[in-house]
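Figure 2 data, in text form.
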Amino acid sequence: MKTKRKLISYFCILALVLTMMPTVAFGGQISDISDHWAKDQITSLMDKSFITGYEDGTFKPDNNITRAEFMAIINRAFNYTEKAEGSYIDVPDSAWYTDVIKQAKAAGYISGYADGTIKPNNYISRQEAAVIIAKIKNYRKCCCSFRF
């Protein structure tokens, strides 16, 4: 139980403070976190393969995070792989995040906006991130046990 709370805490830190999840894996050492205050948290999440760095060897820890990037983190962390059918008018089939959004929809923690969009490239707000985490926590508590 303590490990589960710690993991949720990492995601809260990531959602509320870190504000950047690069989407391209980089196999080498990340060059721009050595003096960053969140280095330990970033490294821990990278070790668990929940987040990655850019191809150029950076992480850009002070950048904002998009809604699609946050969904990618959540999907990896909770091992969401099932994909829902349907699409959003602002999600092209060729986008890197198309499957990420289908997984988020299938997991039930995001549904999009009334106008048929999901706004994947908008920066995620702290409120939106908190709502997603609360939904997942409630779904997990009510429907099944945590699997980490």
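Caption note: Residues 83 and 102 are 5 Å apart (CA to CA).
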